[in-house]
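Reopening this one. Same input as before:
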Amino acid sequence: MTTEETRWARGAYRGYDVRLPAEPDLELTQVDAGTPGGEYHRRFWFPVALASQLGKFPVPIRILGEDLVVFRDGEGRVGLVHKACAHRRASLEFGRIEQRGIRCCYHGWHFDVDGTILETPGEPESSNVRHSICQPAYPTREVKGLIFAYMGPPDQVPEFPYLDSFDLPDHELIPYSIHSPCNWLQETENAIDPFHSVFLHGRVNGPQFPGLEHFVELPVVNYVQRDGAIVYSHARRVGDLVMLRFHDYLMPNLAQNGGMFQKFEQPRFFGRTSLTKWVVPIDNTNSRKFGWRHFNNKDEVLRLGNRDDVGWEKVDFYGQTAHRSMEKRQSDPGDWDVWVSQGPIAIHSREYLGKTDEGIAMLRRKLRRDIRAVARGEKIAQVGGTAQNPYPTYGGDTVLRVAKSNDDEGLMKALQKQVAEIYFAHDHLKGEERSAKIKAALGDAFPDSKT
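Same output, byte for byte:
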């Protein structure tokens, strides 16, 4: 048998077998109104715009396959309404922002931010049209430079997900937003895949993030499913130090990771996140990331962050946008390149998931269960919180001084579970009290790690 025949026999050169089109997983990827996935997404609050976008004119946006305009009226209130005027369908992107609400340029119909019709100037005084219809609109919330919206059933508005990371001491939150021409799921899955850092950000292209060179080592990973969330951590050893990086993944599309621009040379307890981000579906084949970069010298010890590089279509760490030359993208690809390169909608039936894809498989199963629950009319678990009683999060880094074991992988798995239990045990506390109690408990559990 020739070399070529041997290759054929063992399954090489099988391009012909997979050349035919395959269908995407519509249950997980579709977001249009009326689809199972679309109705699921409409049960959540999520960002839809940067506050800095709102100025003299209405801003046209597209979210969950719906064409909308967002604006701030003269009273400072934010409105989010359907782009097409309820009267004759002219676009409200050409509307006039009033002291109260917005006015259509075509026939002067005047709408409040909740869609209520305030005036129909061309109609006779006796007309009841303004009392019988309204402009489709959605409720909004403005938090630290991001505009959030809820686009679901009015009688099912959930609690707004106010997280403790919104108000971390000494953290300056700078909002940003970046477009990706691909389905939301393949972008957000990147946030629950710690193994991609080993290769994309380390072994294949060389270390891309200063201070995280040790990420080239394969991690020991631990996942914990909680109501409405997945908390996961990954551990690596550097000498007598074990670095535990915790991540928050809040359904369906919010993620927080550890500190950017770190340096791990000594123990530390309960460091906090440098990044809070949502991947919001624009439609089935486009998504937009909204988030905050957290600037804090305690959690970014190398101090390489740059506030001027954070905003619309930009953020101050590597490989997150399309705005690089193709030569640069091919020679040193980043996160944006790999999730967009999967195509407009990644075809799951063409994938071969392995051990390193545990988080991906877990997220897809959880999404599928919740999407089907919504379709059955059932309530699903969601995170909530208020500024006075925020939802506790865990994203950040703990570094322990622990001697190497004969079963070091088992040791690192046990350490992650122990630290996670300490974190969770203090969920009832808030703010600096919670942080101080967690650090004290870690010090008691790991006295060799006290600094």
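So the earlier flakiness isn't reproducible anymore. For the record, Residues 358-375 form the longest helix (18 residues).
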